Amino acid sequence: MGQYQHYLQSPFCRLGLGVAFAMGVFGLFPVLAQATQCKGSLGAIAIGDLEVPSGATCILRQTTVRGDVVVQPRGTLIANGAVIQGNIWAKQALSLNLNAATQVAGIIERPLPQRSLFQR
C-alpha cells in the first residue's frame, strides 16, 4: 500500500490551525474600541468614536473624530471647527450646535423639537 497522509496531518495545515488557535487564545483579532466619553472640552486632537453622556456638555474645538458621535438623551454637543468623519446621532439630545467651520462626512440626526406640555 502507498503512503497516505490525511490533509489535517500536513505541515501547512498544522501551521494554519496553530496560528488560528493562537489568535483566538491570545486575542489577536481586532478588538472593538470603546468610545471616548466627553464631559467637557476637547482640543485639536484626533480620536475614534465619541460619546456625550446623558446630561453632559461636550465642546469640540478643532477636534477630529474618526468615527461616529453619539449624544445620549439630554446631552449637548457644541462643535467649533471640528471634523466628524462619521455620523452624528443626537435624536434625544438637549442641544446640537455645529458651527459653519465644522465638517460632517455622514448623517446628522438632529434633536426632535421640544414640545410644551401646554400645546394642544
SSE order in H/E notation? HEEEEEEEEEEEEE
Helix content, binned percent: 10-25%
Q: Average pLDDT, to the nearest integer?
A: 84
Biggest β-sheet: count, sense, barrel?
Answer: 5 strands, parallel
Q: Report the end-to-end length measured between terminal Cα atoms.
A: 91 Å
Q: Tally the beta strands.
A: 13
How large is the radius of gyration?
24 Å
Percentage of residues in DSSP E strands? 25-35%
Q: Unreliable segments (pLDDT under 50, ≥5 consecutive)? A: 25-31
Helix/strand/pairing class, anyone?
alpha/beta
Taken from the alpha-carbon principal axes, the silhouette is: elongated
How many helices in DSSP terms?
A: 1
Largest beta sheet: what is the strand line-up?
A: 1-4-7-10-13
Would you summarize the structure shown here?
The protein has 120 residues and is an alpha/beta fold. Helix content is 13%, strand content 30%. The chain has a domain at 36-109.
Please explain how this structure is put together.
This protein is α/β, with parallel strands linked by helices. It has a domain of 74 residues. It is 13% helix and 30% strand. The protein is built from 1 helix and 13 strands. The chain has a 5-stranded parallel beta sheet, with no helix packed on it. It has a 4-stranded parallel beta sheet with strand order 2-5-8-11, with no helix packed on it.
